[in-house]
C-alpha cells in the first residue's frame, strides 16, 4: 500500500467511528451546556457564529457538541487542506459553515469529510514527502505527510471528545431503556431489536423477561449481533442456555466477524460457553 492509501484507511476508520457515534443526535443535545461559561454557537444577524478568542483563556472553556462539530467541519473543509498541499479548492467545496441545528451539523460533516477525503486521495508520494513551502507559514519546512497526519489527529481527538460528550449527556439523563417494554408500554412490533439491545447492554436480567413478552430471541443489534452471540462472547452461560432453549439460532453469523455463536465463544475464550455449544451440537448429531 502507498502512503496515501494508508492515510485514507486511517481517515475512513476515524470518520466512520465518529459518524456512527452521532446517530440520533438531537437539537437539545447539540446545544447542551452542562456547565456555566461553555463555548458554543449563537445566532447573530448574519447566521450562527462560534464562540472563540484569538488567545483562548486558560483553562479553556468546556465546549458543546455544537462547537466541537463546527470545529471539525472547519478543520476538514478549510482552504488550507487544499492549498497547503499545492491544490486549489474546487468550486463546489464551499466554505465551512456554522450549522444551526443537529440535522444541519450532520449534513455539514458529511460534506466536509467528502471535501477532505477527495483532497487527501489526490496526494502523490512527491507531495507527501516534500516541504509545503511558504503557503504553510511557520510550517513551511514540514512535509505533506506531517500535515495530513495533523488533520487526522484533529479528526481523531475531537471525534473522541464528541463521543465523550454524548456519553456525559446520556449519563445525565439516564433512564432504563427497557422499563417501558417491561411495563407493557412498548411492543415487539415497535422495537423489534430490544432483546438484542438488552444483551448488548449486558442486562442479562432483562433478556428472559423480554422473551416472555414476545421479543425475538434472534433479533440483531444495529451492529448485526444476536443476543446469543453476545451471551456466548461474554461467557453469560445461563443466558445462553435460556436463549437456546427459547429457540435461538446459534448458526447465525454476524457481519463483523462472520462467525456463528460457537465462533464467538471460541474467539473470546469463553470455555464453558464453547463446551456447552459443542456438547449440544454433538448431542444433536447423535440423535
Topology:
Layout: H1 3-21, H2 27-30, E1 41-44, E2 47-50, H3 65-77, H4 80-83, H5 102-121, H6 125-129, H7 144-172, H8 179-182, H9 194-200, H10 206-212, H11 227-234, H12 237-245, H13 261-267, H14 271-286
Antiparallel strand pairs: 1-2
Helix pairs in contact: 1-5, 1-7, 3-5, 3-7, 9-10, 9-11, 11-12, 11-13, 13-14
Give a structural overview.
It is a single chain. The chain has 287 residues and is mostly helical. It folds into two domains: 3-172, Up-down Bundle (Four Helix Bundle (Hemerythrin (Met), subunit A)), CATH 1.20.120; 179-286, Serine Threonine Protein Phosphatase 5, Tetratricopeptide repeat (Alpha Horseshoe), CATH 1.25.40. 53% of the residues lie in helices and 3% in strands. It is built from 14 helices and two strands, in the order H-H-E-E-H-H-H-H-H-H-H-H-H-H-H-H. The chain has helices spanning 3-21, 27-30, 65-77, 80-83, 102-121, 125-129, 144-172, 179-182, 194-200, 206-212, 227-234, 237-245, 261-267, 271-286, and strands at residues 41-44, 47-50. It has a two-stranded antiparallel sheet with strand order 1-2. A hairpin with a 2-residue loop joins strand 1 (41-44) and strand 2. The longest helix has 29 residues, at 144-172. The chain is globular. It starts with a helix and ends with a helix.
Compose a concise summary of this entry.
The chain is an all-alpha fold. Helix content is 53%, strand content 3%. Helix 11 (227-234) packs parallel to helix 13 (261-267) and helix 13 runs antiparallel to helix 14 (271-286).
Amino acid at each position: 500500500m502507498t502512503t496515501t492509501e494508508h492515510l485514507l484507511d486511517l481517515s475512513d476508520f476515524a470518520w466512520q467511528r465518529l459518524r456512527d457515534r452521532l446517530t440520533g443526535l438531537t437539537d437539545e443535545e447539540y446545544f447542551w451546556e452542562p456547565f456555566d461559561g461553555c463555548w458554543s454557537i449563537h445566532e447573530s444577524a448574519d447566521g450562527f457564529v462560534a464562540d472563540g478568542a484569538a488567545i483562548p483563556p486558560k483553562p479553556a472553556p468546556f465546549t458543546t457538541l455544537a462547537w466541537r462539530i463546527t470545529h471539525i467541519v472547519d478543520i476538514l473543509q478549510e482552504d488550507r487542506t487544499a492549498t497547503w498541499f499545492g491544490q486549489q479548492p474546487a468550486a463546489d467545496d464551499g466554505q465551512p459553515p456554522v450549522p444551526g441545528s443537529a440535522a444541519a451539523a450532520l449534513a455539514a460533516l458529511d460534506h466536509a469529510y467528502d471535501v477532505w477525503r477527495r483532497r487527501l486521495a489526490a496526494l502523490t508520494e512527491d507531495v507527501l514527502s516534500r516541504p509545503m513551502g511558504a503557503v504553510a507559514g511557520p510550517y513551511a519546512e514540514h512535509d505533506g505527510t506531517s500535515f495530513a497526519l495533523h488533520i487526522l489527529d484533529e479528526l481523531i481527538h475531537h471525534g473522541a471528545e464528541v463521543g465523550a460528550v454524548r456519553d456525559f449527556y446520556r449519563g445525565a439523563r439516564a433512564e432504563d431503556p427497557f422499563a417501558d417494554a417491561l411495563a407493557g408500554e412498548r411492543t415487539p412490533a415497535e422495537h423489534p431489536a430490544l432483546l438484542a439491545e438488552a444483551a448488548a447492554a449486558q442486562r442479562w436480567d432483562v433478556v428472559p423477561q423480554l422473551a416472555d413478552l414476545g421479543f425475538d430471541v434472534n433479533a440483531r443489534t444495529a451492529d448485526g449481533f444476536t443476543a446469543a452471540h453476545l451471551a456466548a462472547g461474554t461467557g453469560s452461560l445461563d443466558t445462553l442456555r435460556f436463549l437456546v432453549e427459547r429457540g435461538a439460532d446459534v448458526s447465525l453469523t454476524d457481519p463483523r466477524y462472520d462467525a456463528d455463536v460457537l465462533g464467538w465463544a471460541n474467539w473470546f475464550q469463553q470455555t464453558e460457553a464453547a463446551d456447552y455449544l459443542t456438547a449440544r451440537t454433538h448431542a444433536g448429531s447423535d440423535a
